[in-house]
Design goal:
alpha/beta; 2 domains; six-stranded antiparallel beta sheet; 14 strands; Rossmann fold; OB fold (Dihydrolipoamide Acetyltransferase, E2P)
Length: 262
């Protein structure tokens, strides 16, 4: 039987892997490290992991190519993408076309790292439970997926265009549940500009952890949902209808929407 460890971290910068190993080990997590993708694939042949942290810019195989190899091999371990080249394109691509569950730019603090890791571990467990729930005689769904006509930025946020050319955007039910719930939101103000792939709001969970919500569409804020801001439980109960966060005027919807998933 293969050994099951908590985390596999992959980065060609030894200092990064050392920091991740130190921070996670201090929290009692079992962790292995690899300095390139091929070494990581060998680790995955020898053992199983609950979560993978992978750098994007690596020699031989990039992080995106590594995710392609995981798909070919039928490995469904949740992946967090890391990069010091924290461009909007990398952030969006990480959460959509590659299928990573989360993204963290370097440099990051220990608190930021642990928040993303703990949220992603819960996300992986919820996705696994949801897959099991699709089988006959299984239990209830572990989270509510986005409605079919919504566009989503990975498992983080969503956008819904209307016939007036404006759009509502919000946070996904899976993200809220993986974060452990919500106790408050920090939202931007009407008139401010939002950028796809850049945090547009901050969510605080009951345990005090703080989570950045990446924006699914670029545009100017026309309206903030004060009901959601004043009563965060509304977002937990109804994230896709009454629990939206902003109504915006998209600045480049044709370009932005092509990156989002249905």
């Amino acid at each position: 039987m293969k050994q099951i460890r908590d985390i596999l971290v992959i980065d060609d910068e030894p200092m990064v892997t050392q920091v991740v190993v130190k921070v996670c080990s201090a929290e009692g997590m079992t962790i292995s490290s690899a300095n390139h993708a091929f070494d990581a694939l060998r680790c995955l042949e020898e053992g199983e992991f609950r979560l993978i942290l992978c750098d994007i810019m690596m020699p031989e195989l990039s992080g995106f190519q590594f995710l392609g190899e995981l798909s070919k091999r039928g490995i469904h371990t949740p992946v967090i993408m890391m990069t010091g080249y924290s461009t909007v394109e990398n952030a969006v691509k990480s959460l959509t076309s590659t299928g990573a569950v989360d993204y963290i730019p370097k440099p990051f603090t220990a608190d930021e790292l642990l928040t993303v890791i703990q949220r992603s571990l819960r996300c992986g467990a919820l996705l696994e439970k949801a897959e099991s729930a699709s089988l006959p005689r299984s239990g209830a769904m572990s989270y509510v997926p986005c409605p079919t006509d919504y566009r989503r930025l990975g498992y983080v946020s969503w956008a819904l265009m209307d016939d007036k050319g404006t759009a509502k955007i919000g946070v996904s039910d899976l993200f809220v549940r993986a974060a452990g719930g919500v106790s408050r939101f920090e939202l931007s103000l009407p008139g401010e500009d939002l950028l796809q792939g850049i945090p547009c709001a901050e969510m605080t969970s009951p345990d005090g952890s703080r989570h950045n919500i990446m924006c699914p569409l670029s545009g100017r804020i026309l309206e903030v949902n004060t009901d959601a801001q004043q009563t965060p439980a509304l977002v937990e109960k109804d994230p896709y209808f009454r629990g939206w966060l902003y109504r915006i005027l998209p600045s480049n919807p044709a370009s932005d929407l092509q990156w989002l998933s249905l």
